[in-house]
Amino acid sequence: MPDIDTPARDVKDAMKKAARTVKVEEQKFEAAAAQFPEFFRELAEKSVEQAKENYARMRNAAEGATDMVEDSYLTAARGATEFNLKAVEALRANVNSSFDYARELLAAKSLSEALELSAAHMRHQFETLSDQAKEFSALARKVATETAASGKSFRVN
Q1: Mean of the per-residue pLDDT values for the chain?
Q2: Which long-range contacts (CB under 8 A, 24 or more apart) does 90-93 make?
């Protein structure tokens, strides 16, 4: 039966060997760094500084883009809520109108009075639906414009 600890010992030995190699490589790197000309050292420092500045600009741009998306989303959500409230209001008005029409129709004394009520109700419903369509169209345009405008406010520094 093979020894269960053998693979674990092999791993430990490999890790010790890698650690010794890293120490040797660090010593070689420190020796090379000591011989590194000042010009290259300054160039490396400038490169690091420039990388930090670029990172800060990228971070600012990403934060700005995130803010823009959040603003656009919130504006669109508010617009959708407003649109939905308007739809519920229109639905309520249309249902109430239909109930009023049904009540008036049931109270009609003659067929001609019922036909007159039906014609008046149809005219009223057509005008109401036309007005509601105009309101929904204007509201949709307003929401789209506000949502688009909230996205235009993004500027990269």
Answers
A1: 81
A2: 90/132, 90/135, 90/136, 93/128, 93/132
